[in-house]
Design brief:
Length: 215
């Protein structure tokens, strides 16, 4: 049973590797769709293969960011979340302005519906929102990082600035998941690019440049 599962995962990953190397197929598929989907990985694992397998089953064509890293531009960034944001921003610059873009993490995400359903759901929701809205999953981790290292608000913050910034976050009476999950969002390309650029600039301005090797 386990052997079958392992073989299946290897088989799926093998197919995906083949697909990824067929640039004309990738370009053709991407051009036909108003919805562009991307994920980021540093390395292939059984978890990422399970995620890619579910994408494959639902006709989701994933742009896999992170593996191709000319000049090791991303590797010098030690913090994975910052590396991901930089990769997303760079990739978004090559996506057409009229596209709707979905980004999901790779190790804990399964695809359960077709891209058409995702696109239709986005149109339904975004009809009531302005075009520059980015819809993202909320989480309890404080992110993007502020002046101190910890992700969660805590008494270990050494200066009051993070608390002042925290006060700027929108509150909700229904949920304690107030913070952005960088690995789960959907938006029109210009809005997504603006947010990634903002996150990147925000983190660059901070001391993460030295702490995390962000260049
Ligand atoms: C979008 O809205 C239409 C009209 O209300 C509805 O029929 C359809 O099921 C919705 N689609 C999705 C994917 O939410
Ligand atoms: C949240 O609670 C406050 C105080 O009870 C109330 O004034 C406000 O309208 C609520 N907001 C939402 C979005 O429910």
């Amino acid at each position: 049973m386990l052997a079958t599962a392992v073989l299946l995962v290897i088989g799926l990953c093998g197919s995906l590797t083949l697909l990824r190397n067929q640039a004309p197929v990738q370009t053709l598929l991407a051009q036909q769709k108003p919805l562009w989907l991307a994920t980021y990985i540093d390395d292939v694992s059984p978890f990422t293969c399970a995620s890619f397998g579910s994408a494959w089953q639902h006709g989701v064509h994933l742009h896999i960011l992170g593996l191709k890293d000319p000049g090791n531009k991303l590797k010098v960034i030690r913090n994975g979340k910052i590396r991901k944001v930089v990769a997303m921003r760079d990739w978004l610059r090559s996506v057409p302005e009229e596209a709707v873009v979905v980004f999901n993490d790779a190790t804990d995400v399964l695809y359960l519906v077709s891209p058409d359903e995702v696109y239709q759901a986005f149109l339904n929701i975004s009809a009531k929102l302005s075009a520059d809205t980015v819809l993202f999953a909320g989480e309890r981790n404080l992110w993007p990082y502020f002046d101190d290292y910890p992700e969660r608000p805590s008494t270990h913050f050494k200066n009051p600035d993070p608390w002042q910034r925290l006060a700027l976050y929108p509150t909700s009476n229904q949920s304690s998941f107030r913070f952005a999950n960088a690995g789960n969002w959907i938006a029109r390309q210009p809005a997504a690019l603006a947010l990634m650029t903002r996150w990147d600039n925000l983190m660059k301005l901070r001391k993460y440049k030295t702490i995390m090797g962000h260049t």
